[in-house]
Amino acid sequence: MKPLFSSFLFAAAALALAAAASTGTEPGISFEYHRYDELRKALVSVWLQCPTITRIYTIGESFEGRELLVLEMSDNPGTHEPGEPEFKYIANMHGNEAVGRELVIYLAQYLCNQYQQGNDTIIELIHNTRIHLMPSMNPDGFEKAASQPGEIKDWFVGRSNAQGVDLNRNFPDLDRIVYINEREGGANNHLLQNMKKAVDENTKLAPETKAVIHWIMDIPFVLSANLHGGDVVANYPYDETRSESAHEYSASPDDVMFKSLARAYSMFNPVMSDPHRPPCRKNDDDSSFKDGITNGGAWYSVPGGMQDFNYLSSNCFEITLELSCDKFPNEEMLKNYWEQNRDSLVNYIEQTHRGVKGFVRDLQGSPISNATISVEGIDHDITTAKDGDYWRLLAPGNYKVAASAPGFLTVIKKVAVPYSPATRVDFELESLMERKEEEREELMDWWKMMSETLNF
Amino acid sequence: MASKRVGLFVLLQLVVLNVVSQTSAFPTPTASADDKTVYNRQLTEERPLQEQIAEADSVKAAVQSAESKQPATSKDAEPEQGDDFTMLKSLADGQKSKEAPEGPVKKGDHQYVPDESDSTKSRRLADDYDSTKHGMDYDDPESFRQVDGTPLTAEDIVQKIANKIYEEDDRGVFDRIVSKLLKLGLITENQADTLEYQVAEALQDLITKNAKNNEIEDMDQESRGEQDDLGSDTDAWETPRRRYDEEDDDEVANNDDDETADEVDRDAEEDVDNSWDKEKEEGNEVNPEDGLQDLQYFPNFYRLLKSLDSEQDAQERETLITIMKTLIDFVKMMVKYGTITPEEGVSYLENLDAMIAMQTKNKLGKSLVVPDISGLTGKNFDEDDNTKSETAKMQKEYENLKDSTKEEQPSTETNQPAKSETYLEAIRKNIEWLKKHNKEEGKNDYDLSKLKDFMDQQVDSYIEKGIIAKDEGDTIKRIYSSL
């Protein structure tokens, strides 16, 4: 018994040493892989260190019962402050694409550390944004991938969830619908109708997918990114080609803005933005990659993906980040990946504060929720959230922005939008009833005048 | 005059009409929006749903068969994943299903000790304790009744316990059973004492009787053949007895051990009942039904056992079985107490079997290798050198096979002491920052008690949601209260 115990202690000590050694230049972050329990504990540690600006919550359970954990960071965690935009990072929806998962954990730790060390940029960001970090959408898949013996991890094992479902093909395919609407007329956004039937009663949706859909519908996210592995590029909508061919540039109405967003990420990642970077594998076709970004359809067609689902069912703009040629690299590489991506990750969150934003209220000052904000020339409308607040991401330029709501008269305003920060544009809408009232009063006045004049 | 009035009236009417028509012509810019929503309803609600789902299916099928991104097609991967998943699931299920029916039988038996008069009353108690109890329990003749259908009396129970103690040569059996009964509140201290006397008496009788008959004590499963003498009403106890053999190796005086063993016992028992007679004829043959149910998922282990058919290997085979069962029990216990998840336990055992496949080539009895320790199997194997070496060997091989991502098994153990340190560190950083922050802003000393209350509340809420484990929560609360 004795020798066993001492070996145990030694192993424990060795591990502790190894953990300490791998922190490197970033104090307080240990660059190693986190299994489910370790992930949970890492998030709890961040919360314990920064309890006034963080909160942990879960959006549901994976198929095998693991919590889909989210760490939220803001100056008022747990509440949506009117006018404060919401942001999210989701990683590891493919369980064997492990780098994103780790980067999100490191980012949580980093933001907490930097906040406490007085980093003004970070403090500003956390005070003005509500940041949601989900390190793993597919914890079951990750466990499977991580449990493989040996160094080399299979390209597929652990990719799908525990039911064998590829979560990034599992979302309702709204691209198809929007393409039809483009041709024949129809809504250009918020295409997920009948939540209950399309989601809750849909047996084809994995529990992870359902949980994320509810999450997207619940919180008025403005900007988001979806972290993957297997290549190095920032991918933007649309992912599915219009003609159903394998490769075709499929621009969304916000193509200009998406390119700007994707570049905002890639330009701080030296590997991603390197124009002379060789492709990850010899025969890879990366002809669609430019400046480290690519249109989804131009690269290859993906139906039922989460990225496009965000854009077409809600107000959220999402891009897909491929962060490593190797889906599940050696643990020693993790620190490098952090170095490559840290600035990009922070800078991308800052993109939330671009375009126009503001409130839509009625003449009495009450917020109008679900009002439509449309921009002339961009066939994609967004809506106001519960407090009447909206955030419309726009690239620099001159725009006409219209706010409308049922029962109200539309108001159009001209705005000149810089690169950043977001321009504040509020709307006060007059309701139809009010206008009718005005006109009725006018009529009454006229009638009174007439009757006085004509003496009846 | 009249005509003037009429004229005026007509004029008025015209004016009114005019005004009314103008009212309706007032701009209604939202009309177009209304049209749109109507249009939307047609397109998005009625039509696309089924199509959407159908299209998603067809596209998904098309995409799956033509994944142009990856070098290989995803279809190749799918069966693999499916197999992995099904096997894992079956293993997990196997473990889960075993756990359920075990408890009631044992408890049911022992309930007769305090309440000898009314068997039905006791049986209801068993129900109360375990809602997962199967109807099978009632039909099972061995546990509640003798062969002739009469319920077991207290004397029978005493006899059974005495037999067990005799066979295992271990008084610990009695302690375990009694402490469990006491814990469940089924017997009082006095009753426990009485039971002890009765069992001691019965044991004494047994010893004298058996000494006369010159029976050789045999810890092997072959001893079952000799149980003919004791009658088939003790059948129910045979396999559990064998399991208790291994139980002795574990940390003793742990009620929970018993429960785990009990749970496993249940399956073994049922099968024993069915195939008892058959087995006796088959003699030494390791029969999957005779209680090695746990091991059926370890094909390589089975092959190894089968290869040890000869007489001289019997001891080694027995040892191996002991080790495997102990490991399985331990893993179950770990899973039960949440130290590891079922999936981790399953994958550990899977890896174990794979490693056994490698080892099957080498004979048993290799020299002792200093083990790398994984907390998972840091158990007490001090009764047999062979056992120790075998486990150590298995351990070492498993270490080699482990994945590169993280030392999973050690980390579950090393994180136990390290975890509270991580949390402590995090809390310390927070307090430091609070102090500094409040000083900078010129505030007075931050309200520690308010913070503590807030944290307590948050911790409770997180425990409830499954974000923090209970013991972790307690640790955190403790740290805060010590500040």
From TrEMBL, chain A:
Its cofactor is Zn(2+). Its EC number is 3.4.17.10. It is found in: Cytoplasmic vesicle, Secretory vesicle membrane; Secreted. It catalyses: Release of C-terminal arginine or lysine residues from polypeptides. Pfam families: CarboxypepD_reg, Peptidase_M14. The active site is at E322 (proton donor/acceptor). One of its GO terms (biological process) is signaling. Residues 1-20 form the signal peptide. The keyword Zinc applies. Keywords: Carboxypeptidase, Cytoplasmic vesicle, Glycoprotein, Hydrolase, Membrane, Metal-binding, Metalloprotease, Protease, Secreted, Signal, Zinc. It is a peripheral membrane protein. One of its GO terms (molecular function) is zinc ion binding. SUPFAM superfamilies: Carboxypeptidase regulatory domain-like, Zn-dependent exopeptidases. GO terms for cellular component: extracellular space; transport vesicle membrane. The keyword NADP does not apply. Residues 32-352 form the Peptidase M14 domain. Its main location: membrane. InterPro entries: CarboxyPept-like_regulatory, CARBOXYPEPT_ZN_1, CARBOXYPEPT_ZN_2, M14_CPE_CPD, Peptidase_M14, Peptidase_M14_domain. Belongs to the peptidase M14 family. PANTHER family: CARBOXYPEPTIDASE E, PROTEASE M14 CARBOXYPEPTIDASE. This is Carboxypeptidase E. It comes from Poecilia formosa.
From TrEMBL, chain B:
Residues 95-145, 398-409 have a biased composition (Basic and acidic residues). One of its GO terms (cellular component) is extracellular region. One of its GO terms (biological process) is protein localization to secretory granule. Its main location: membrane. The keyword Ion transport does not apply. It is a peripheral membrane protein. It is found in: Cytoplasmic vesicle, Secretory vesicle membrane; Secreted. It holds the Pfam family SGIII. This is Secretogranin-3. It comes from Poecilia formosa (Amazon molly).
